[in-house]
Structures are given as structure tokens and as C-alpha cells.
UniProtKB/TrEMBL annotation:
<dbReference type="InterPro" id="IPR029058">
    <property type="entry name" value="AB_hydrolase_fold"/>
</dbReference>
<protein>
    <recommendedName>
        <fullName>AB hydrolase-1 domain-containing protein</fullName>
    </recommendedName>
</protein>
<dbReference type="InterPro" id="IPR000073">
    <property type="entry name" value="AB_hydrolase_1"/>
</dbReference>
<dbReference type="Pfam" id="PF00561">
    <property type="entry name" value="Abhydrolase_1"/>
</dbReference>
<feature type="domain" description="AB hydrolase-1">
    <location>
        <begin position="37"/>
        <end position="154"/>
    </location>
</feature>
Length: 243
């Protein structure tokens, strides 16, 4: 049975397996909530991002309580070296139950977090009030995608993303772990590379919330764990982060 813990000002759910999931709460109190939403972050992100851009005023107006977690291997959450989509769903359900999110709760996942929302929709649809996939990561090699569709999607990817997807598909997992542990480093250079892929309004936003703001803190937090997931391994089942 999962239990709640607090250490050094951080909140955790200790799962039945013994692993800990760190979480952040935002919005109204649980007792006042009309809707409870769990947020699953993307690659290179953490619980600190929560639902990017949302204000406490808006959450209170709609009676929403947000629970944003560090997915396993990110931030302050323990790594799960045997993680699968199904086991990740079990973690999410344990966290929801430990935090009394009700018989049904809402899910929001962006980037790689979207893949785990899909997993919840597959394995525990009876527990979900609704699911939102926000620019979700996907599997470009899924057999349900035609060659024409794949080519159309592939040409819109920036070269760095093409490299990551190709690397994840063809490289043994131990090399991926070595790469993430020794070559993935947060910092201002990450933002310089990111800037080339953004629209003009997004570039302006980055100037306001750039390397000295919340984005860099979020990125550093994501990589706190020694075996932080820093790249994606692609399988026939979808996108699986390497822990």
C-alpha cells in the first residue's frame, strides 16, 4: 500500500514497491476540488513545470486541483529500471489512490508524458474522467502508419530529433544509458539550440522566461536523478524513456 511522506520540504508517495514518486500540488484544496488533474511531464522536464502557463486564479475559478509528478527517473523520483507502459500505469494509479483523487481523475500529458496518458487510457479507462494529450510524443515506426504518412511527418522534424529517434531505434540500451549519464547536460546551450525550432511568438516568450527563469530550473530538476531519462528508446509499443 502506498504511503505519503515529506522530506526536506518535498512531498513523496512511497509506492508498494518501495520506490518514491515526488509530486507537487497546485490549485484548490482537495476537499474543495470539483476536478482533480494529474500532469505527466515530458522529456527534460519535471513536476516543476506542472501545467505550463496556468494560474492559481484560473484553477480556483474552475475548482481544479493539480497533482504534478516527477515521472520515474526524473527529478526527485526513484528510477524504475524495469519500467513498461503497464507498470507506469500501476504507479500512476497508486499515486492517485494515495492522494485521494477519487474513483475517476483527469490526466494531462505533454511530449513524452502523452505516451503514458495513452497507456492509462488503454489499461485503466474506468479510472479516467478525461485525458488530454498536449503535443504528445509518438512512435514514427508504428505499423499502423503508412510509408507516405511517415515520410510527411518525418520531413517536419528538426535534424536533432531525427538523430534521437534513429539512435533510440538502433542503439543498445546500455549505450543509451552511457550517453544520458555522460553527455546530456542542462544549460544555456540547450536554449540556444531550442530557439531555432520555435515560432516567433515562442522565441519572444523564451526571452522572458529563458535561461535565468523557470525553464532552466525545470531542466536542471529533471536531470537530478543519477540515471535520469535523457533520451527515448523506441519500441513497437511506443515511446519508452530510458531510466
Amino acid at each position: 500500500m502506498a504511503v505519503l511522506e515529506e522530506l526536506g520540504g518535498l512531498k513523496y508517495v512511497r509506492l508498494a514497491s518501495g520506490r518514491r514518486i515526488c509530486y507537487k500540488e497546485q490549485g484548490v484544496r482537495r476537499e474543495e476540488a470539483k476536478r482533480q488533474l494529474m500532469v505527466l511531464h515530458g522529456l527534460g522536464s519535471s513536476r516543476l513545470a506542472s501545467m505550463p502557463g496556468v494560474s492559481d486564479t484560473l484553477l480556483k475559478a474552475y475548482g481544479v486541483k493539480i497533482v504534478a509528478i516527477d515521472r520515474p527517473g526524473y527529478g526527485r523520483s526513484d528510477c524504475d529500471t524495469e519500467q513498461t507502459f503497464k507498470s507506469s500505469v500501476q504507479d500512476i494509479e497508486e499515486v492517485a489512490d494515495a492522494l485521494s483523487m477519487g474513483d475517476k481523475f483527469w490526466l494531462l500529458g505533454y511530449s513524452c508524458g502523452g505516451a503514458f496518458c495513452w497507456a492509462c487510457a488503454r489499461y485503466i479507462p474506468h479510472r479516467l474522467a478525461g485525458v488530454c494529450l498536449w503535443a504528445p510524443a509518438g512512435n514514427y515506426y508504428w505499423k499502423g502508419i503508412s510509408d507516405e504518412e511517415r515520410s510527411a511527418m518525418w520531413k517536419d522534424l528538426v535534424s536533432s530529433n531525427k538523430f534521437i529517434f534513429g539512435l533510440g531505434r538502433r542503439t543498445p540500451s546500455w549505450i543509451l544509458r552511457l550517453y544520458t549519464q555522460h553527455f546530456v547536460r542542462p544549460g544555456s546551450n540547450w536554449f540556444k539550440r531550442l530557439e531555432h525550432t520555435l515560432s516567433a511568438p515562442d522565441r519572444q516568450h523564451l526571452l522572458i522566461y529563458g535561461p535565468d527563469g523557470s525553464l532552466i530550473r525545470n531542466l536542471f530538476t529533471a536531470l537530478l536523478t543519477d540515471e535520469a531519462a535523457g533520451i527515448m528508446e523506441l519500441s513497437d509499443g511506443g515511446v519508452i524513456p530510458v531510466g
